[in-house]
């Protein structure tokens, strides 16, 4: 979120202001207030669910880290990919308004289905090829850290599982004596879970992905339609609109974990479904205020909407199959790039192939059909798009490895108050809301002095800040307590750095695309921009998989091993991303020439 110029709202009104009654809201078309509310509730739902999802998968369904992180990465990547299709269908057939309403209903159904998770999975351990059921007292609340001992019965004896830092496991008797030591390769864990409820959970995620594709691009399109061409209030209006995203995010990431802990998993997802239905009601019963905005295009013949709605259900089934393939994908068995690619699910292969085709094919096409200047500017845009992938692959650890790290290896206390790991994700929107005005004023102040960083320098700063956030978190390991937990303040600092990084790259990226792209393919380049985020989301899941640790029943077998695994992964990712930022800084003179004065 970037604040507009201070006097932007005092510009002359355009003829496109609130055709329902001619009034304004904060100096903008009055319809913006309703669209602000709709977006706020939708983001409440999405980010509230996002805060819970990795913990729902690992604590309730008892998925191993590798599967849970892979599924989450696939889910978030598709959430950024499907809007390309949803936007196209709206432009050609449905119109933005019908698309938003349909998307809200489909997502509400998906969130509602998440309420039905069945019984928690039943954990088991496999030792030397023999299977043993694992018993463990339930946690005080669904999101609470469960430190109760895990036991198995072996040869009539009740033994407690105790993991060691090298990955091996000790089985302890009543007095704490070691009854048996099991090597890491002879011990594995799993869980029995309902096939029906597991399939229902994947269907719920599939519906959310498809509904998001209809909702996400088209609500913004309606906002843009409120302003006539040349109306200088447009940027300020989008700033207000995007504030709704952060407000909804903060509320959702606070309310949903609270409901889960005090009522149950179903309550955390039910409130999400309810607010999405509320978003639908606000759009459906808008009292004519949005008449003429986002209407369907004029079509010859029969309305295609019913067919599109039916095909959406087919699309949800396809997404379900994609998710199933992601979950079934084996862990890479070797260390070479080819072995890793071979183990990559179909979704990963498809995303990477499409992205490579775009970043190679578009510059070649530009050289053939455009002027030399246009081709060079397009090449610069593609370079920045590639670096954007790196940013999101690290930044989006918030939904996966950072939340698991918070749950397993931080104290989860601030100012004497205890919080759940899910609630830590709200640090990001809180920082964005608080410091967006500061960053905006900083850029304005530097611009007046002719010192504002160029687009590529802002990208580089973002990369180095997001990398520094992980390096800082890796340093925290030196200050762990006896339970191998570090202060939650380290995570707060990481989120602070990441959020400032987001303010340096996210608002700048879309503007960069519009400035550097050849005019007749700017829409396609916007699609490539969102494709780069989609690829980054997928790679975020893959990176989180590298931080996977051994768990039994959702509980790590050894907190020291978990801490060391997370910190090593964070340091590696942080160093690589800082290196990417430094590389981009080194390329700045070259990019400056290619961009021909665009900054």
From TrEMBL:
The lineage of its organism: Bacteria, Pseudomonadati, Pseudomonadota, Alphaproteobacteria, Sphingomonadales. Gene3D superfamilies: MFS general substrate transporter like domains. InterPro entries: Dipep/tripep_permease, MFS_trans_sf, POT_fam, PTR2_symporter_CS. Residues 1-22 are annotated as: Disordered. One of its GO terms (biological process) is oligopeptide transport. The chain crosses the membrane at residues 70-90, 102-119, 195-215, 236-260, 266-285, 306-326, 346-365, 377-395, 427-447, 459-476, 488-510, 522-545, 565-587. This is Peptide MFS transporter. It is a multi-pass membrane protein. It comes from the Bacteria. Keywords: Membrane, Peptide transport, Protein transport, Transmembrane, Transmembrane helix, Transport. It is found in: Membrane. It comes from Sphingomonas chungangi. Belongs to the major facilitator superfamily. Proton-dependent oligopeptide transporter (POT/PTR) (TC 2.A.17) family. SUPFAM superfamilies: MFS general substrate transporter. GO terms for molecular function: peptide transmembrane transporter activity. One of its GO terms (cellular component) is membrane.
């Amino acid at each position: 979120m970037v604040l507009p110029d201070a006097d932007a709202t005092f510009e002359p009104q355009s003829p496109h202001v609130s055709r329902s009654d001619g009034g304004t809201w904060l100096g903008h078309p009055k319809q913006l207030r309703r669209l602000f509310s709709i977006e706020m509730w939708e983001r409440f739902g999405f980010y509230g669910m996002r805060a819970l999802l990795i913990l729902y998968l690992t604590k309730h369904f008892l998925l191993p880290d590798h599967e849970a992180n892979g599924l989450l990465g696939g889910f978030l990547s598709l959430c950024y990919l499907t809007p390309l299709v949803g936007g196209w269908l709206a432009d050609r057939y449905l119109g933005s308004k019908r698309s938003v309403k349909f998307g809200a209903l489909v997502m509400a159904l998906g969130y509602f289905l998440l309420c039905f998770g069945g019984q928690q999975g039943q954990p088991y351990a496999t030792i030397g090829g023999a299977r043993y059921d694992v018993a463990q007292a339930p946690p005080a609340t669904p999101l609470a850290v469960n430190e109760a001992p895990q036991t198995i019965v072996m040869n009539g004896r009740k033994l407690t599982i105790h993991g060691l830092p090298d990955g091996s496991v000790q089985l302890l008797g009543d007095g704490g004596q070691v009854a048996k030591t099991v090597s890491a390769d002879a011990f594995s864990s799993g869980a029995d879970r309902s096939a029906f409820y597991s399939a229902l959970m994947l269907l719920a995620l599939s519906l959310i992905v498809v509904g998001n594709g209809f909702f996400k691009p088209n609500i913004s399109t309606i906002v843009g339609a409120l302003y006539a061409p040349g109306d200088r209030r447009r940027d300020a209006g989008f700033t207000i609109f995007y504030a709704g995203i952060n407000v909804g995010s903060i509320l959702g990431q606070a309310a949903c974990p609270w409901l889960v802990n005090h009522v149950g998993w179903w309550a955390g997802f039910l409130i999400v479904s309810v607010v999405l239905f509320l978003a639908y009601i606000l759009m459906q019963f808008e009292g004519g205020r949005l008449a003429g905005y986002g209407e369907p295009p004029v079509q010859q013949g029969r309305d295609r909407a019913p067919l599109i709605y039916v095909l959406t259900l087919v699309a949800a089934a396809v997404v379900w199959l994609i998710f199933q393939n992601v979950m079934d994908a084996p862990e890479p068995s070797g260390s070479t790039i080819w072995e890793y690619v071979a183990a990559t699910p179909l979704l990963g292969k498809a995303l990477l192939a499409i992205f490579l085709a775009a970043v190679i094919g578009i510059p070649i096409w530009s050289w053939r059909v455009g002027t030399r200047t246009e081709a060079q500017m397009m090449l610069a845009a593609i370079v920045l798009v590639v670096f954007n992938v790196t940013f999101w692959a690290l930044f989006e650890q918030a939904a996966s490895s950072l939340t698991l790290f918070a749950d397993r290896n931080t104290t989860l206390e601030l100012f004497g108050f205890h919080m759940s790991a899910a609630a830590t994700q709200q640090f990001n929107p809180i920082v964005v809301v608080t410091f967006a005005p500061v960053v905006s004023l900083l850029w304005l102040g530097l611009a007046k002095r002719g010192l504002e960083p160029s687009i590529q320098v802002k990208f580089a700063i973002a990369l180095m800040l997001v990398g520094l956030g992980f390096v800082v978190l890796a340093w925290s390991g030196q200050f762990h307590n006896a339970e191998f937990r570090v202060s939650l303040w380290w995570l707060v600092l990481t989120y602070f750095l990441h959020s400032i990084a987001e303010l340096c790259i996210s608002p700048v990226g879309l503007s960069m695309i519009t400035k550097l792209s050849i005019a007749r393919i700017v829409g396609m380049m916007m699609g490539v921009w969102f494709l780069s985020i989609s690829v980054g989301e997928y790679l975020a899941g893959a990176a989180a998989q590298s931080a996977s640790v051994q768990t039994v029943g959702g509980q790590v077998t050894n907190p020291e091993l978990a801490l060391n695994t997370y910190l090593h992964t964070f340091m590696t990712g942080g160093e690589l991303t800082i290196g990417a930022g430094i590389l981009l800084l080194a390329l700045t003179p070259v990019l400056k020439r290619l961009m021909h004065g665009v900054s």
